[in-house]
Write a structure and sequence with these properties.
alpha/beta; seven-stranded mixed sheet; 8 helices; 12 strands; globular
Length: 258
């Protein structure tokens, strides 16, 4: 049977529904080899012993940091995603703390302060107004120790908006095809994940939709400076290559709390 969502879901419900497919869609296992060397350098350079992973998903970056000896708190608004964080941590014999919270309530719901706050995988695009994003950055600041770092990864929306790029990715895994695509409804985007699977010669499909706000470099830098972050560096990927507005796939920002 095919299932098509006829409503736009909030981000927590959206990720609850796709949690069981998320690791397959994102290449969970192979990314450890790809990303571990960079995060090892980051941990060593900035002396990171504790980290808050804001928008942890199924826990990839939390687990990667834990493998590097960092004490990690994984935060997500999706209960189903956090279940998978816990399952992965048990399977990998790694200790993590999990907290269910959205970004706007980190100050009240997540205890303590950290050497690093990371927000990866385009999580910030779920913040749907500039005012809310400023509050989120204030919360990140409050969760950091003095001298701590904020590390953000988003898609490069300068390129996506300029080119009106609809299809973001199409991936086949285990006989299932996942198509991630946008509908432009300025100033927001409808983010869709279409799941296609053939059973007994019939193509079954499931569609889930949520809203995103395309955040670009200038807005991020302005708001980070506004709440007190300094020594901000912008890159086009986690390996810190040069950011090119019309070429880079990602927008990566590293900032310090003095």
């Amino acid at each position: 049977m095919s299932k098509v969502s006829d409503t736009v879901q909030n981000s927590a419900a959206f990720y609850d529904d796709i949690a069981s497919d998320y690791d397959v869609m994102t290449g969970f296992q192979k990314r450890f080899v790809q990303e571990k060397p960079f995060f090892n350098l980051l941990v060593q350079k900035y002396g990171i012993t504790t980290a808050l992973d804001a928008g942890a998903g199924t826990g990839f970056h939390s687990l990667l940091l834990a493998q590097l000896g960092v004490k990690v708190t994984s935060v997500d608004s999706s209960a189903e995603m956090l279940k998978r964080v816990k399952a992965h941590s048990r399977e990998m014999n790694l200790e993590l703390k999990t907290v269910r919270s959205d970004f706007q309530n980190l100050r009240e719901e997540v205890p303590g302060t950290y050497d690093a706050v990371i927000s990866m995988g385009n999580s910030l695009a779920h913040i749907l107004s500039r005012e809310e994003l400023r509050t989120v950055f204030q919360n990140f600041m409050l969760k950091l120790n003095a001298g701590g770092i904020l590390f953000l990864q988003l898609l490069n929306y300068s390129k996506i908006l300029a080119r009106r790029e609809i299809i973001q990715s199409a991936k086949e895994a285990n006989g299932i095809t996942f198509v991630r695509y946008y509908e432009f409804c300025d100033p927001l985007l409808k983010f869709n994940i279409l799941r296609l699977e053939t059973k007994n010669g019939v193509i079954e499909h499931t569609l889930h939709t949520t809203l995103l706000r395309p955040i670009v470099k200038d807005e991020i830098l302005s708001l980070l400076a506004d709440v007190g972050f300094t020594k901000t560096k912008v890159s086009g990927g986690i390996s810190m290559e040069e950011y090119q507005p019309m070429k880079s796939k990602d927008l990566v920002v590293l900032a310090r709390k003095e």
